[in-house]
Structure formats: structure tokens, C-alpha cells
Amino acid sequence: MALSAQVHDVQGFLGGAGAGIIVFCVGLGLLLNALLFTRPRKNVRDHSLAAESQNLLDTYAAPQVRPGDEVSAAMRAQTTSNLAPRGSVTEHTTLHLKSDR
Fold first, then answer.
1. CA dihedral (29, 31, 35, 39) positive or negative
2. C-alpha–C-alpha distance, residues 13 and 19, integer Å
3. What CA–CA distance (Å, rounded) separates 54 from 60?
4. How far apart are CA 70 and CA 65, in angstroms?
5. pLDDT of residue 80
6. Do the beta carbons of residue 65 and residue 71 sit within 8 Å?
7. How far, in Å, CA of 101 to CA of 7, rounded?
8. How many Å apart are CA 15 and CA 17, to the nearest integer?
9. What are the tens digits of pLDDT across the range 5-64?
10. Residue 94 pLDDT more than 90?
11. How far from the centroid of its chain's Cα atoms is residue 58's Cα?
């Protein structure tokens, strides 16, 4: 009786073996993908000249305007007091609410 296999023992063994075969196939697929289909990168182009010119542009500071200097209206930034008044988002949606609350 000790040498005979029960039905649930065989089913458990086959389930474990099936899971092992699936894990083995996934690992084999990853290994084949890495060896056969992944190509090494080509040499990277030298962009040092572009990097130097970008660094020069980044370090350039715009001329500072002193508070007493006159600046033309085209150069002056628009402030919030100069903006056109617009309706609020909530004003439009509150018209749809019931007033008998």
C-alpha cells in the first residue's frame, strides 16, 4: 500500500510539474530573447558641441531692469488688474441648483 499512488497524489504531482514546466519555458524564452533578438546599441553620437552651446544659453542672464527705469508698454508684463473680467465657473453651475434648500 505504501508503494501505490493515490489519485490525489498523482494530480498534485502533475500540477506541480506543470507549473515547473511553465516557469522553465518562460525562463528559456527570456534567455533566447536576450541572446538572439536583443541587439547591442550602436555607438552614441557625440553631442558635446550642442551641449556646450546649450550651457552657454542657460548661463545667459537677461538684462535686469531697475525699478526707476522706464519700460515700454510692450515690454511690461500684464498684471491681474489689467485682465478682462470673466465669469466664474461656479456662477454658471450654481444657476442649476434648487433654491428651496
1. positive
2. 10
3. 10
4. 9
5. 67
6. yes
7. 70
8. 5
9. 787 788 888 888 999 999 999 999 999 998 888 877 777 777 788 888 888 887 766 666
10. no
11. 25
Cell of 1: 500500500
The owner of cell 489689467 is 82
Residue 71 CB contacts under 8 Å (≥ 6 apart), including other chains:
65
What type of residue sits at position 71?
V
Q: For residue 4, what pLDDT band results from cuts at 50, 70 and 90? A: confident
C-alpha cell at 38: 536583443
Residue in this structure with the C-alpha cell 547591442, named with its chain if needed: 40
Q: Please give the backbone phi and psi of residue 36, each rounded to the nearest 5 degrees, phi first.
A: -100, -35
Query: Which of 45-49, 71-75, 85-89 has the least mean pLDDT?
Result: 71-75
Helix (H, G, I), strand (E, B) or coil at 74: coil
